[in-house]
Structure prediction request, 344 residues.
Amino acid sequence: MPTEAQPLRKLGFLTIGLFDGADPGPGHESTLRVLELGDELGFDSAAVRHRHLQYGISSPVAVLAAATQRTSRIALGTAVIPLGWENPLRLAEDLATVDVLSGGRLNPGVSVGPPMHYDALRSALYPDTGDQEDFSYERVSRLLSLIRGDRASTFSGTEGIEQFSDHVQPHSPGLAGRMWYGGGSTRSATWAGEAGMNFLSSNVVRAEDGSTDFEKIQLSQIQAFRAHHPSGAQARVSHGLVVIPTDSATAEQRAKYVDYAAKRLPRTKTPQGPAGVLFSPDYVGTSAEIAEQLYQHAAFREIDEVTFALPFTFEHEDYVQILTDIATRLGPGLGWKPAGLFPG
Prediction:
């Protein structure tokens, strides 16, 4: 619980990594520079979003592989990889490889469910098995099993001059304990707790039991996760809201930030879409103002680590200003101190 007596323990951020489809290089380079800046500013963690068939990072594992060579201590994560697009065996190999390259800094976040617009793309993604694919929590269980080192093949040994293993290589001890599940429902929170994973709670939840109170729903999900986790109250939860401190912003930046939040505010008033999705308002203001609002947030008071989300459509210079203010003003205002070592 972040209070003056019990300060925020870990501070992280999340970026979407937008790029120009006609010239994608600069956007990817900007993302890597943002991750480098987070490392320099002492953030505990940095995560990248995952976007398929859009102009945002489609291969976060590849981007994070590059980031391992340009950072030295910050934990690197995904928020989140939708497993409906992935083969768990191949993803386990990729994640373990990047974890080895990072020296054990990878914190992958995943989720389940059918891919967005599945009917429009199934012939490209799963042309032969589209109707048989399992998009349930079992897909996460398979991934966890393979990352832990359970058997992946009935064959091992030497064939000619080649050697074969019956489990995923490279094996990265400790990676399974750094796996996160991103969920917005009590069902997902409960499952993640029972699976012994860490839990990512964001600025999106599902309306449940007739309630549309975002904070209370999010709080109940965090409590359900910990009630079903072997570690109980010590189970890790990362809280992700959009925060935009304006302490060092120019007048033009402040106006842009306020306009951005105002345009997104109407969606927070009522549940959205067939799933009844609820969005949290964005937090814009000085670090002192944002800290005061967060201390009043029922779910925020239940956690001691955050992954604040950066807005989607801003310029690189805006992200530099926002991250610098978070690290030098908002974080310390919540009792956080810059990391000396990357989190385990």
User: Anything to note?
Assistant: The chain has one domain: 10-151+166-333.
